[in-house]
Amino acid sequence: MLAVGNSKGEGITVEQDRLTQYHDHCYQYDASGNQTVVIHPQHSQRREFNGFNQLLSLSHKDGLSRYE
User: Fold this and answer.
1) Phi and psi torsions of 5, nearest 5°
2) E strand or H helix at 46, and its extent?
3) Residue 6's pLDDT band (cuts 50, 70, 90)
4) Quick one: DSSP state of residue 6?
């Protein structure tokens, strides 16, 4: 199990207190710290947030989900 505050080891990268790589998963964040992209060899996700940091949409291999 990964404890981000104590992340150590090969294949784990933390930058500016954000997990950016965990083995074959890569993560990207917006300026507010919301996780906007997850990339994995078999799948990926993109997330869109509003100015209140609320999730607006989630794009994945099965389609697009929108939240209001």
Assistant:
1) -65, -20
2) strand 43-49
3) low
4) G
User: What pLDDT digit, counting tens, does each position of 17-58 carry?
Assistant: 999 999 999 999 999 999 999 999 999 999 999 999 999 999
Q: Which of 45, 7, 43 is nearest to 35 (CA)?
A: 45
Total number of domains in the chain: 1
Structural domain including 62 reads: 8-66
Residue 5's pLDDT is: 55
Q: Which pTM does this prediction carry?
A: 0.80
Q: Is 32 among the domain residues? A: yes
| Whole-angstrom distance, CA of residue 36 vs CA of residue 63 | 16
Is 35 within a domain? yes
